[in-house]
Task: inverse folding
């Protein structure tokens, strides 16, 4: 569930007073993130930003209805950009990039309190990637929401890197990669030889080819949930990537090839899950 909604959505059209819009219905500020690992100019998503004071005054009824609708379709909801519940990177709508934005506080604690009263236990997973401040981590832990550990981010910065399996904690979900990453096979092939050596040495010099050593590492993690993209289960390369962040064309077009999820592959995944106590 993306934290923000689209300007041309029914949500904004029917609830314009809940968003920072001008008299013509156009956003005055839009959401995004500052420059980071993915983009030197940040990401200007273009979503309208909430008028938090109005949401608070209404008891977060719009949010409660939104989550209730999602739960009609899904058992667990990943809050995309959980960091935005603590503060939102607001960008002037006239700006073409995210560089001129600024962090503005958000009432995440009050929102989660209202949602907890309506849905107990909270059915959320917190997407807490990128530069995360201690208040964001404190908010996630206060409401016992699992965070995320992405193995493709693990092999840089030394042994203290929080994404390395030996630094994982049970209150997290581990991924080989997410929809924003390359496939694991594509990622590994794009590493230089020393980086590939580092990865394989950390993983114990496995005999199986990528992406299976990283799949094994995810399933062996102490994280209470392991999520493996189907592209990695199928050992697909970079041509099957879902979404390069910061780009606006050619994304989200990948489709699962017919008849690729074979009984043999299902048996293999079942066996691996049983080995690591996830069966």
Result:
């Amino acid at each position: 569930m993306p934290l923000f909604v689209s300007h041309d959505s029914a949500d904004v059209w029917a609830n314009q007073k809940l968003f920072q819009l001008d008299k013509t219905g156009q956003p005055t500020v839009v959401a995004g993130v500052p420059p980071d690992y993915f983009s030197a100019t940040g990401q200007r998503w273009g979503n309208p930003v909430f008028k938090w004071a109005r949401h608070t005054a209404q008891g977060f009824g719009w949010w409660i209805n939104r989550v209730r609708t999602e739960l009609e379709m899904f058992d667990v909801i990943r809050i995309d950009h959980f960091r935005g519940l603590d503060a939102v990177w607001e960008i002037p709508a006239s700006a073409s990039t995210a560089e001129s934005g600024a962090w503005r506080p958000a009432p995440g604690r009050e929102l989660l309190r209202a949602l907890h009263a309506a849905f107990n236990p909270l059915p959320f997973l917190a997407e807490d990637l990128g530069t995360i401040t201690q208040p964001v981590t404190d908010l996630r832990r206060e409401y016992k929401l699992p965070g995320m550990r992405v193995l493709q981010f693990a092999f840089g910065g030394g042994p203290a890197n929080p994404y390395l399996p030996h630094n994982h904690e049970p209150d997290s979900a581990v991924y080989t990669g997410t929809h924003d990453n390359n496939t694991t096979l594509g990622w590994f092939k794009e590493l230089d030889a020393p980086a590939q050596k580092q990865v394989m040495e950390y993983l114990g010099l496995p005999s199986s080819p990528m992406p299976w050593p990283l799949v094994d590492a995810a399933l062996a993690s102490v994280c209470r949930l392991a999520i493996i993209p189907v592209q990695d289960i199928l050992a697909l390369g970079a041509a099957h990537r879902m979404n390069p962040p910061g780009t606006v064309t050619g994304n989200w077009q990948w489709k699962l090839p017919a008849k690729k999820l074979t009984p043999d592959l299902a048996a293999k995944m079942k066996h691996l899950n049983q080995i690591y106590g996830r069966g």
Notes: Residues 55 and 191 are 46 Å apart (CA to CA). The chain has ten helices and nine strands. The first strand starts at residue 29 and ends at 33.
